[in-house]
Structures are given as C-alpha cells and as structure tokens.
Design brief:
- The chain is an all-alpha fold.
- Helix content is 68%, strand content 0%.
- It is built from 3 helices and no strands.
- It is flat and about 70 Å long.
Length: 87
C-alpha cells in the first residue's frame, strides 16, 4: 500500500514509504573471493579508513593525557595561590 500525496510539493518525492531492498548475505559470503577480486578498491578503502581511525584515536588519547596533566597542575597551582592569598 502506497500513500501518494503532493503535500510536500514537487521538490520532494510523492511516495512516503519506500521499503529498503533486501540483502542476500549468503550470496555475498559464498562469492566473497570473486567479489573481492572484482572490487579491491572497496577493501582498500575500508582498511585505509580503519587505520586512519586507529591512528587518530591514539593521537587524540595522547593529547588528552597531556591536557589532563596540564589541567591538574593548573588546579593545584590555583589552589595554592588562592590559599596563600588569604593568609
């Protein structure tokens, strides 16, 4: 059953529900080597993106640890300065 309407105008689609196409995973994994030989750029793209995410995660974690040390020293110095100010 499809509900057709021009409520959204001519810019939008006139059908509100379009079911997704089903994926046959069995067919994909049975011919995986053949599909990989036909489209190796997909695998290369996934590997490059995965390595990029891992490297950026490590870099950002190290930067976060450095920032944590700086902030901790700043808080300790601020408490010392605040307490000395009131002596």
């Amino acid at each position: 059953m499809k509900f057709k309407s021009t409520f959204f105008g001519t810019f939008a689609s006139d059908t509100l529900f379009i079911p997704p196409a089903s994926i046959d995973f069995k067919a994909i994994f049975e011919n995986f080597a053949e599909r990989l030989s036909q489209t190796p750029h997909v695998l290369i793209t996934f590997v490059v993106l995965f390595l990029l995410v891992v490297n950026l995660s490590l870099l950002l974690r190290r930067m976060d640890n450095r920032d944590h040390l700086i902030v901790r020293e700043y808080i300790v110095c601020s408490i010392c300065l605040f307490s000395l100010k009131w002596i």
